[in-house]
Structure formats: C-alpha cells, structure tokens
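Entry type: protein chain
Record version: 2
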Amino acid sequence: MSLVDDLVWLIDIPSVTGDEAALRDAVASRLGHLQPRVVGNSVVVGTRTGRPLIVLYGHLDTVPVQGNLPARVEGGRVHGLGASDMKSGLAVMIALLEDAGVARGPFDLMGVFYDAEEGPAAGNGLERVLDESPDLGAAEFSIVMEPTDGELQLGCQGAINATVEFHGTAAHSARPWLGENAITRAGEWLSEMHRRSWRDVDVAGLTFKETFAVTTASGGVARNVIPATFTLNLNHRFPPDRSMEQAEAMVHEVCRAADRVEVIDRAPAAPIPHGNPHLDRLEALVEVVAAKTAWTDVARLTERGLAAVNYGPGEVALAHRSDESVRVDSLERCFAVMRRFLG
C-alpha cells in the first residue's frame, strides 16, 4: 500500500487513549514478519542482527473523536483524527520497517508503537515498554516521529503543573467586610501572569521558550458566599538548560504571593545529543533544524541515556483539532529523508 493508503487505514482504526488494543493488534499483524512483541497496549517490532541499532518511536493513541472520522483524502491532504498527531508518523514508520532497501542497509531498525501518550504522564505506555525491552537500550540513535512540520527538532522543554491556592475568609456576600475574597485577592498575581508572556532562551544556538500559563481556575461555593479558597493550575514549560530542581524553584518563586503551591506533575527537559554522528547525518538531510518548544518522549529516552531527537511529518498547528490533517507531500518528504538516513 502507499503512504496515503496506510495513513487512511491507521486513522480508520480508532485508538483514543485507553482503547489502543485494536490498532496495536492491526500493526502487530501487519508487521508479523518482524517478530512483534506485545507489551500491554504497545507493540515492539524488529530484531537484532549485530548491525548498529536505530529505533523509531510513535504513539498509537489519539485525543477523543471530534466528528473527524472516517479519514478522507482531499486537496492534497489526508484528513482525520490523528492525521498529524501522530498517525502520519506511524505510516512512515511502517513504510520504513517494510522497505527492502532499508532492511538491506547498514542498520538494524526497530519500531516502538506505544500507548497512552496523550493521557497523564504517569500512565504513558513507553515507560513499561522500555522497562520490558532491554534491547532498546542498545540503540545508537532514537527518533520520536511526533509532529515537527518536517523540521528536525532537538531537545525538548520540560513541563511542570502546580496547584496554586489563595486563601481568604468566607462571609455572606451582603456583608463582604466580614470576610476576605480569595478570588479577588489573587487578582494582582493573575495580572502579573498575564503580562509575563514568554521568554526566549538560547541553548546551543537554538531558541527555546520559557512560559508560565494559568490553565484552570475554580473557587467559591455559592453565589451569595464570599469565597474562602481560590485554586488554580499553573503550567510551566522550561528549556533544557535547567534542571528539574531549578525549574521547581522558579515555580515557587513566581508563586510567592500565593498561600499554597504544590507541584503535582512534572516531566524533565531533554538535552541536545551533541557529538552523535547519526545526528550529524540527519541534520545534513533536512532543511530546518530547530528547538522542540514542547515536551515529548525524547525526554524519557534521554533520561535512560539514549540519544534521541524529534522528526515527523505531522503539522504542529493542526494537532488535536477537529480539522486535523496532513499534507501528502509532507508524508512523502519525511519518508524520503528517513530512507536516505537509513540506507
């Protein structure tokens, strides 16, 4: 089948986070000649022959359906749930794993199709795959085929979510002077967060972005009660020149006006794998090399000592949208670059 046919096939097997089993089984059956190993709702394909190992990674799951199934091909694009994030990457992975020229090339190639990337970080299926597949640790280079607009994106930003609370004193809304409004007490801090925007950070000549964003807020128990508690979520994205401890310290500093700050979720940033000869070869084949200004599973891989980068055909701006799609020529260009890289 063609890349487009494969992508349509992948999209038309729904795989919302938690329901990846059908797609896992379809991929395992399709690549049965590569001795697939099922790990939970994930599947690992490929075997070692003693050549240097390259591993490709892609997640099977998507965000929930938004009226964007089944797939359709129109105007030089493939439309449908997961087209950009990241079933286009999966289609390229499958094509490379089935390519006879790649199989005869100088590298062993393995593919990891894993589950639950779109859910909470703690439930991500890649951790279990890595724990149960020690052979992946021998990889000289790993490529996460998340959407990158066809750019080679290096490193990735870390992420922290923190619960931020402002406290007041409840009272009848007819007599607000008897209490203290926790919501309006947070107003000055919220204005500061609104003005903060983002900060560009240069790391090895690439521009990452430090951001602080309030993403949820709740407070109050009734329309006639002065609220005693106002609770917000602060999302912090930080560049790879900062340790997790430094990033957490920054969150506490930014939230010093609050009454309580608790980090509830965190994921490390990933460094750039300087000096890796495979990175040098891949850089020579792409038009644009940029910073990954988001978090990806490159961070999980680098925590385990693996050199990893982001490169995929999907379009970042269309990920998770109801009108999600990907250009056919982006699929073909990504496959051509990867085939040359592996050939």
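Comment: The radius of gyration is 23 Å.
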